[in-house]
Amino acid sequence: MRYGDWKRGRIDHNGLWDIQLIKNLPYVRETFNDHYQLELWRSQGHQPKTGGLFDMRRPGHPSSTQSLIDCHTHLEHVGISYYEMQPGDNLPYHSDTYKKYIEVFHLRGREKRIWRYIFFVEDWKPGHIFEIDGMPISQWRAGDYVAWRYDVPHMAANLGTENRYTIQLTGVEIAGI
Questions:
Q1: pTM for this one?
Q2: What is the pLDDT of residues 124-166, one digit of tens each?
Q3: Residue 3, pLDDT score
Q4: Number of domains into which the chain is organized
Q5: C-alpha of 46 from chain center
Q6: Is residue 85 packed enough to be buried (19+ CB in 10 Å), middle (13-18) or exposed (0-12)?
Q7: Residue 56, domain member (yes or no)
Q8: At residue 177, does pLDDT exceed 50?
Q9: How far is CA 69 from CA 52, 76, 103, 115, in A?
Q10: CA nearest neighbour of 156 among 113, 115, 123, 127
Q11: Mean pLDDT over residues 85-114, rounded?
Q12: Could you tell me if 53 and 27 are in contact, meaning their C-beta atoms sit under 8 angstroms apart?
């Protein structure tokens, strides 16, 4: 289902990931990389607390990572990150900056062709929240995804009692495909 610059879908995730491996990754918490956005959130009364990240800068990705990349032949310069949101973690409405991604792959001038996919690796649990472009997404099943072009605003939070795990796939759409 497509809504302009974002879409929802579902993949057959059998063999693409092992939830236990994902849960056991050494996640690292980092400060959100857009200081302007952080200050704006704080001025609005938010207390953002980002989740843990295991990204393309770290060795030791699960072997299934390459299989997930291989499914996206319409993209180049694909990077994968695993994300863990613990209860209380939240990222208020924002648009991603892709600063490190653009730098690593030398993508200045091609930003508008960047797509981000979020794969839900487990079924939805109460309190797990995702919203994109003003539309709440809930009741997802393992294998569902949401994808958006470059700067579509979105938010995520875990107001539940169990950790929330996703896989982020970022790539540049190949011209002509």
A1: 0.91
A2: 999 999 999 999 999 999 999 999 998 899 999 999 999 999 9
A3: 61
A4: 1
A5: 21
A6: buried
A7: yes
A8: no
A9: 21, 9, 20, 13
A10: 127
A11: 90
A12: yes
Bridge partners, 132 (sequence order):
135, 154
Residues linked to residue 169 through DSSP beta bridges, in sequence order: 80, 117
Residue with tokens 């497509």: 2
Q: Are 171 and 31 in contact (CB under 8 A)?
A: no
* Domain CATH number, residue 131: 2.60.120.620
Residue-level length of the chain: 177
pLDDT per residue over 42-79, tens digit each? 999 888 888 999 987 788 888 778 888 888 888 999 98
Q: How far is CA 45 from the centre of its chain?
A: 24
Residue 1 located in a structural domain? no
Q: What's at 80, amino acid-wise? A: I
- Closest of 138, 147, 31, 155 to residue 93, by C-alpha: 155
Domain that holds residue 160: 6-173
Q: Is residue 107 part of a domain?
A: yes
Q: What percent of the chain has pLDDT over 90?
A: 54
pLDDT of residue 83: 96
Two structure tokens written together for 134: 């003003």
Report the side by side order of strands in the sheet with 6-10: 6-10, 144-149, 114-120, 164-173, 75-85, 52-54, 28-29
77 belongs to a structural domain: yes
